[in-house]
TrEMBL record:
It catalyses: L-glutamine + H2O = L-glutamate + NH4(+); hydrogencarbonate + L-glutamine + 2 ATP + H2O = carbamoyl phosphate + L-glutamate + 2 ADP + phosphate + 2 H(+). The gene is carA. It comes from Phaeodactylibacter luteus. One of its GO terms (biological process) is L-arginine biosynthetic process. The active site is at 257 (nucleophile), 344, 346. Transmembrane segments: none annotated. This is Carbamoyl phosphate synthase small chain. GO terms for molecular function: ATP binding; carbamoyl-phosphate synthase (glutamine-hydrolyzing) activity; glutaminase activity. Pfam families: CPSase_sm_chain, GATase.
Amino acid sequence: MSDIQQVPAVLLLEDGTVFHGLSAGKIGTTTGEICFNTGMTGYQEIFTDPSYYGQLMVLTNAHIGNYGTKRTESESYSIKINGLICKNYTYEYHRPLADQSIQAYFEEENLVGICNIDTRAVVRHIRSKGAMNAIISSEETDLDALKARLAEVPSMDGLELASKVSTKETYTFGSPQAKYRVAVLDFGIKQNILNNFAERDCYLQVFPAQTPIEELRAWNPDGYFLSNGPGDPAPMAYAVSTAKAILEEDKPLFGICLGHQLLALAVDIPTYKMHHGHRGINHPVKNLATGKCEITSQNHGFGVSPEAIEANTDKVEVTHINLNDGTIEGMRIRGKKAFSVQYHPEASPGPHDARYLFDEFVKLMEN
């Protein structure tokens, strides 16, 4: 693959900060909110996670592409990030089980990226200044032209994106003979969440994000699941209304990530946009019931208001907290069979410390 030619590329941030590097993937221009992931592995799972829709991803691991890509390791049917920013971009891979190189994968998926970037400097800037929009280009080097295009990109704050990545048609997953039936609201669900349910004797019907509660109930599920997904939960009034209706029905309800935030909104606990979010597979979370620390996989730029929860302890019980910054990582609705976590217990490629949460949900359906 030595015949592949790289060209100069530019990364321009909303505050005017500029980084110069080389093209990676398709030659072109792309925009989105810049964020960073601290995971040491699992780049393909990151690329295909629908929760990253509309974002430019900085990967802090120094080598990207060295183990190629494999179709069975995708979390959805296509790449969902808007662009990639990395340091060392490897064309040739050294894993016999891989299907293709990262370059071939990106060209197939039309993804624009930039490499040979000091990602440490980029991450330190985001941690200091906060998440912001950015633009990558390997076809335009005029900064004024790039600034004009970047100015047209909407802020992630207030942006409803879940309906854009949700399934358009209802579908089933797992064995129809399974013991439990789970109605899944898809706001950008990851494949490995479905796998974890199926492995626990659950038959799933996956519904589009804006499906009315009557259609969910008609399937007669034993429990409901609110999935992860991209964007701001605050403008998702349709999903909050559905979550409220599920709570009134009082069947088991489990939410992950965006689903966690929607469950909070359903009991009048507001959400907020974080300074730069949590993204990686090495975030420590304390389980307040057991006192144990779990190493978790995370991907979120919004959180649940700790002040509002503290003022509503009669309605909500905090079950998990982030040990880095004390943010809310899990909660349970008092008097209901409903709970949620901000992080990703299905974690692929790992860690698997929190997969017991799927078992807890199954136990609720047993009862």
